[in-house]
Amino acid sequence: xxxxxxxxxxxxxxxxxxxxxxxxxxxxxxxxxxxxxxxxxxxxxxxxxxxxxxxxxxxxxxxxxxxxxxxxxxxxxxxxxxxxxxxxxxxxxxxxxxxxxxxxxxxxxxxxxxxxxxxxxxxxxxxxxxxxxxxxxxxxxxxxxxxxxxxxxxxxxxxxxxxxxxxxxxxxxxxxxxxxxxxxxxxxxxxxxxxxxxxxxxxx
Length: 204
Ligand code: PCA
Known about the structure:
By secondary structure, the protein is of the alpha/beta class. It has helices spanning 18-25, 49-63, 121-130, 145-159, 175-179, 190-202; strands spanning 2-8, 29-31, 37-45, 67-73, 80-83, 85-87, 90-91, 103-105, 114-116, 135-138, 165-171, 173-174, 187-188. Pyroglutamic acid is lined by residues 8, 11, 17, 19, 47, 72-74, 142, 144-146.
């Protein structure tokens, strides 16, 4: 099985994004819990509403993966969160890294309001917790660029790649980011975030 996995570039004034840092620590190849060999193709995504859809489309057509897992930072969350749903909405107080701000626009004009992950979200979070790392299913990926990318992936699955699986995992701050803030925020060491991601992937 080939898995296309992406993390995001830093945004919002942060020096690092734990999603990309953790993805880059993952092994290139491993065995799933079912004994299947999995190969990873890793890419860093820009934090851009307008470009993320086209880039993931190009990556999918180049890599021809069996599964697409996009990973992003969700500062303030306690553990890894496997997203159940992407919504057809772009709405956030902060602009993206291209300076684009969205306040209530759809990801895709005329698209369905929501699209469910094409992943075993419960098995993945259970595997994460079994590895000793906090994880849960989340019912909101927000309405910023992560949700936008997840919506695009699920739209591509529905319209062009019906046999492909795909979805999104949010990760918390890594410890250095939390340590830089005076107000206490939950965080995990970057190696632990990577271990949690690998546990999730092994449940595919
Ligand atoms: N997190 C943001 C966008 C990029 C990232 O890592 C989000 O949750 O939308």
